[in-house]
Amino acid sequence: MKKKLFSRSAEREKETIPNFIAELKKSADFLCYLNHTSLNPYMICYYRPLIDGEIVHRDVLPHFNRDLLKTIKELKSKLSIENVKISQDPNEMREKLLQGYILLQLISDEENYLLVPAPLHKERQVSLPEVEFSVVGPKEAFVESLDANLNLIRKRLPTPQLKVKEIEIGSLSSTKVAILYMEEITNDQYVETLSQRLESVEFDQVIDSSYLTQMIEDNSRSLFPQLIDTERPDRVAASLAEGKVTFLVDGSPHAVTGPTTLVEFFSAFEDYFLSWHIASFFRLVRIFAVSFSIFATPVYVAVITYHYELIPKDLLGTLVSSRSQIPFPPVLEAIFLEITIELLREAGARLPTKVGQTIGIVGGIVIGTASVEAGLTSNVLLIIVALSALGSFTTPVYRMGNTIRILRFPFIIFAQFWGLLGIMICTCFVLTHLLRLTSLGSPYMAPIYPPRIPDLKDALFRLPFSRQSLRPMQLRTKNPVRFNVKRDKQNKDIDE
User: Fold this and answer.
1) Residues 288 and 429 both lie in one domain
2) I need a labelling partner for 14 at 20 to 30 A (CA). Which of 43, 237, 380, 393 fits?
């Protein structure tokens, strides 16, 4: 195998430029032609889909008919374009042509070739966030262009402390990846850890940031996401100011930040645009909704199967009448309804927007009503499953919502075998797993465990900004102070 690789590299080194161009001509979108009618006869080669024709005809070709040119250096001196290179290396030419360069040769100077950048930029305009939409706050979302995304972040952090490190990943795609951090704030360990993991990735193509997220997470076998992906530039700017690291992938409209904690997945960035009382209330509602989404159906299965004595007398008659005609045990009834809800979700997500919304609403009503009337499910369980589905939708981060959806099924199975004891056993397994998880080496359950009392000011609830003078302790930042508390008190209104 090593001999084959060595022979291929040797062939590359011996490859001549005419043979290299002849090989590229086999592709229909590669153009290469000679012009002998010009004042300076020349050859031009490029990939048609990658080139901006206006740059070629406006800034390059007119020079061949204006002055008499004898060498490529003379042509280079007349071009008012940056990053123009003279080259004799076929490997460099191949790489640059695929990046949107044009290859030029003067017939009078056959030994040298000129590489001129003329890339065609086609990108989507900055639009509204679709996944993390907020009523209050900025209405900008990342797009697929790396430079445009960096611009959105630089606008919010106009400081030289913000550093960008670019690398290329993918043997075929050569995808640009930018690592962002605040030099005087972020702990160097997180920057080195993220850089090392990204640079060690070996894959042929990287299409989206989610590819890399799966490859560099601390525990790739875990259901729980260990990095936050977001489409909001304001959220990324806030994370960088806290001392986190972020990476962006060219072609992906999502940024990935870390290290993160479990409680961050239940805090929407809109919380910071609302008063702290309302934001804290909404966070507690989300946590309750997610807990209800996980435990409601398993508790129903456990109580109906093993623990009738826990049902209040006033409610017992309703449950008995709702299940009197049901031929299936509670576990099959619950799994049937849960899978039906998941099918409706997938159908609504894969169909066009307007059709998907109709399918979700009408399908839920029709299937739910029909299953109750047919005696396949009880109306009480139907209400519980519907509320559980609504609870899982309250998670602001999409990946965590998927985790909550899947997590219900093992709890239902444990409830069927051991009742409430099974639910407790499954809960212990999940908590043990969460306590062992890390994000870029940082504890996943912080600030709950290990306990970080000062960090609780922005965890399960959010205190006023005046109480958040320090950055999170778990990030171990170089500069933990956000603002001077004493100076802030001195600057209060005189009326106060």
Assistant:
1) yes
2) 43
